[in-house]
Amino acid sequence: MTTTHPSARPAPAPSPWRQPLPVWATAFAAVVAFMGIGLVDPILPSIADGLAATPAQVSLLFTSYFLVTALAMLITGAVTSRIGGKATLLTGLALVVVFAALSGTSETVTALVGFRAGWGLGNALFIATALAVIVGAASGGTAAAIVLYEAALGVGIASGPLVGALLGDWHWRAPFFGTAALMAAGFLLIALLLRAPAKPARPTRLGDPLRALAHGGLATTAATALFYNFAFFTVLAFTPFVLGMGAYGIGAVFFAWGVCVALSSVVAAPRLQRRIGTVPLLHTALALLLLAQAAIAVSVAADTPPALIAAVIATGVPIGLCNTAFTEAAMEVSDAPAPWPRPATTSSAGSAAPPRPSSPPPWAPPSPPGPPTCWAPPAAWRPPPSWPPAAATSAPWPAPDPAPR
Q1: Most buried residue, 36, 118, 275, 402, by CB count within 10 Å?
Q2: What is the mean pLDDT of residues 297-312?
Q3: Is residue 168 a contact partner of residue 103, using CB atoms and an 8 Å limit?
């Protein structure tokens, strides 16, 4: 009979909070980048009044931003593999600084929508690269890096509406200038602290993300993420107009919503993933989001503001669960051995549907009991060795530790 010595226990998981300065610099910039998503929520009615625009016109601020973000995701892998991860981050941050400042100078809603599109281009270059850079530079492996990244996402989404309300109460232009200043600080931190990682031997081709979508699992996930993000941004772009509140009221509601996103993504999602697996977690989260949005529709029709506020805040829980589940699935696939697509190609393909940093397929089977390991797809699911030709080259940042997390 085999006995186990009492002291032979699994080593405790490394803390995601003990990281080198370059990781924290990138995480700070990620907080500000995600802050820009909810920043305009509290000031949408003010923008409509200030520019004499309709709610539909003002909602185009989200449409232009995320349409450009989604399309630009298709080229981020090719750009990063040619100019490097650090240069891509700095280019994205510089574009955000410029177009956020220009947004604050807009005199018409058309100009503001156009500047938000440019902002979306910079956002795509940054967020598509930030997660991979954090994974490459972070200590503690992929799991710790994902927790840190999702924490940055949650803090950014939660604080964005609050900052938007505080600055927007002074003037609706102020949040745009505030974001530009914070992004400029992030630019300086990354420029000074982050070491430029090596470039790959062969650059990623522009068509690689589309070739990756030829895989059934990734294509299915991209379509699912498209519908999920439609629901996500309906909450962001539509509810400020039906809440019937001022900037502070809307900011408070979306701050509570953002806290739910942060807690569910950082605390609840990892535990549920270990217990039930990624695919069941996504099924559960999407079902909860469906119920919460149905509750919003009923509350609007019944004109019951307290129920409406509660339903809007409640959507933060399934959204946070989905965010982490999509990201974890992305990194599980990216860790698989060649010739499976590397993070840049897979991230670009999956993110073309949603404005997420990575969203490759969550169709991996649940991990067996015990310490989680890097998941490799069964042979029947893998593409032939020549597909895609450039996807088997080394990534433009240090590869994640393949050891069990």
Answers
A1: 36
A2: 93
A3: no
